Amino acid sequence: MAKVMIIGAGGVGGVVAHKCAQLPEVFTEIVLASRTESKCKVIAAQLPRPVSTAQVDADNVAETVALLKREKPDLVINVALPYQDLAIMDACLEAGVDYLDTANYEPPEEAKFEYKWQWAYQDKFTEAGRMALLGSGFDPGVTNVYTAYLKKHYLDEIHYLDIIDCNAGDHGMPFATNFNPEINIREVTANGRYWQDGHWQETAPLKENRSFDFPAGIGPKQIYLMYHEELESITKHLPEIKRARFWMTFSDNYLKHLEVLGNIGMTSIEPVEFEGKEIIPLQFLKALLPDPASLGPLTKGKTCIGCIAQGVKDGVKKTYYIYNICDHQECYAEVQSQAISYTTGVPAMIGAKMMLEKKWAGAGVWNMEQLDPDPFMDDLNQYGLPWQVVEIDQPTGMEK
Ligand code: NDP
User: Fold this and answer.
1) Closest by alpha carbon to 338, among 386, 387, 279, 293?
2) ipTM value of the model?
3) Taking the model in full, what pTM does it have?
4) Is the minimum distance from the CB of 12 to ligand 1 under 6 angstroms?
């Protein structure tokens, strides 16, 4: 039916390649391209059918355009790093190819997540008659679709939204991040921010925290308020929301290491001079930390990511919790990756499938909550990320 090019051969790229390869009726041809082609070849060798590989530096628009013109894919799935988003969008426009990513653009020199740079491509994609789907991972991605689904089927208006991301898995390493360490640490060490009555409220990094009791035997865990990019698009597209927050679990051990690394300057993105060479401490730290892809065989336990929405239905106040439970070892058995890469890669494949099947179509730049949630939700159940929705009538601790 269609040809896709996956750019990026890290933890997430591996899962996307596996999941696309499992659906030959949709993804007839697959090209896996990345900066280091040998990593593409390692992934290709694990797949149930042949895919081609290519080398590309996606920061170089001309190089990406040349590859796209040679390969002529229908769609690019960008699972490189957020720094490449704009360059790959430019290349897609020039080569006439649709675009999908899982994380919003971030300038390398500043830890700042904002959609403004990618929303600025709205006119260019519309005029070119091309579609760009932003943030088709889990969070952002599935969490946006969950919100749209609750709004469509359960609540007339959503007033309070809490997105809660729990990784109850254990990899047994003293300190490691579950996805790209540089992106992960930039995100976690930034100020917390949440939406309240039409304004952003800032908190010191990881200052606001509380306990939340997770389902599926996970039990109570400490959750920490962070800024996360879907808050920006969801509050734009559902302006009735009075308060929207994002929370993530961290173990005491992770936080202790992060604090020490922060205190000694190792998480800084300010360049420092070392033996006549300029280095960025966080990039040096990344070189020392385990590659997230190597955590796959080691990680045991579950993830639970979901949304609690408080709102009204037919004038009555209601609260719903919608979530997925994913098991690290089951993911590894299926696609040789842990659940963090799996929960990102599966929605990237489904977003691509929605576009190629024209269930989601339209020129311009789209966030996930703007599109019909139903076919995407069906595919989550079918392709490895089943969800459940429960009505909550007891206090959860998230009321305030
Ligand atoms: P990794 O660091 O494991 O992989 C990144 C890949 O991108 C590597 O193969 C890397 O190549 C490649 N790459 C980096 N720069 C370039 C470039 N200039 N040109 C071509 N390829 C390049 O990251 P992950 O797989 O963990 O994450 C991938 C993306 O998914 C990130 O954007 C991340 O933010 C996002 N993500 C989204 C989540 C969500 O729920 N929405 C959750 C988790 C991640 P090389 O091997 O040469 O370095």
Assistant:
1) 293
2) 0.99
3) 0.96
4) yes
